[in-house]
Amino acid sequence: MDYLALNKAAWDKRTELHVDSDFYDVNGFLAGNSSLKSIERELMGDINGKKLLHLQCHFGLDSLSWARLGAEVTAVDLSSEAIKRAEELAEKTGLKAEFICSDVYAFGDTNQTTYDWVFVSYGALCWLPDITRWAQVIANSLKPGGKLCLAEFHPVHDLVSGYGYFHRDEADLDEEGTYTENDDGEESPMLTWGHPLSDVVNALIHAGLNIELLNEYDYSPYNCFEDLTERAAGEFVYEHEHYNSPLVYAIVASKK
Ligand SMILES: C[S@@+](CC[C@H](N)C(=O)[O-])C[C@H]1O[C@@H](n2cnc3c(N)ncnc32)[C@H](O)[C@@H]1O
C-alpha cells in the first residue's frame, strides 16, 4: 500500500475542514493571534532573525506565527491542499515564509540548507514509518549549534486510546474523520506508526544530537482527544485511574 498517497489524500481532505474550523481559528490568526503554544514558545525563546525549518507544517498557522515573531521560515508538508492554503494565508497576511510540498524523507534527501532551529509539533511523528531516518533528516538540516524543538503527543496516550506502545514495522490502518468540531463524518483510510519515547531519544542520539531537555506534560494544549477536561485555559487533561495521564512530551536537542 502506498502510505504517502493514502495519507496525503486524508490530509488534503482534513485540511479543507480544518481551515474553516473553530479549532484552528483562522480568523483569530488573521486578526493577529499566534497559534503557537506556551510549551514551544518557552522552549525556543527569542526566534527573531533565526532560520527556522518547520516540518509537517499543516496549513502553516504555526509557521506563519513564527514568521510574525521575526523568524525566517521554511515549512514542509506532504499535503498539497495544506501548502496551497498556507501560501494563501501568507499572501493575506503579508507574512513571508517558503512553503514546500514534500514528504519529510524526500525533502531530507535533497535539502542542502541548514537552519538554527527545526520545529516539529503535535501529531507529526505517527505519520512516519522510520524514526531513525527522521532523526537523520533533522541532524542534516541543522547548523552546528542549531537545535531541534519537538513538542509531540505522548505515546502513553496511544496505549490508553487502544494502540500499541512499542513500534511495529507494520502500520496501523484506521478509517477516521478528523478531530476538529466541524468533522463531517466522512472517513478516510490512514496509515500510522507508533514511536515510543526511547526510540525517539535514541534516534536523535544516534544521529549525533545532544539531548538538552526532555519534558513530559500532564496536559495537552489542544482539545483533540476523547474525554479530555479543561482544567485551566488551554490545558486539557485526561484522567486515568484517578491520575492525570501524560499527554505531551517535548525534546530540545542540539547539533555539536
Ligand atoms: C497533525 S498535523 C501537524 C500538526 C501541526 N502541529 C498543526 O496542527 O498545525 C500532521 C501533518 O503532517 C503532514 N504529513 C503527514 N505525513 C507526512 C510526510 N510523510 N511528510 C510530510 N508531511 C506529512 C500532514 O499533511 C499534516 O499536515
TrEMBL record:
Tell me if Zinc-finger is a UniProt keyword of this record. no
Query: Recorded GO terms, molecular function?
Result: transferase activity
How is this protein named in the record?
A: Methyltransferase domain-containing protein
Q: Does the keyword Transferase apply?
A: yes
Keywords from UniProt, A to Z, are: Transferase
Q: What Gene3D superfamilies is this protein classified in?
A: Vaccinia Virus protein VP39 (3.40.50.150)
| Source organism | Agarivorans albus MKT 106
Question: What InterPro entries does this protein map onto?
Answer: Methyltransf_25, SAM-dependent_MTases_sf
Residue ranges occupied by any Methyltransferase domain in the UniProt entry: 53-146
Residues annotated as coiled-coil are none
Lineage, top-rank taxon, reads Bacteria
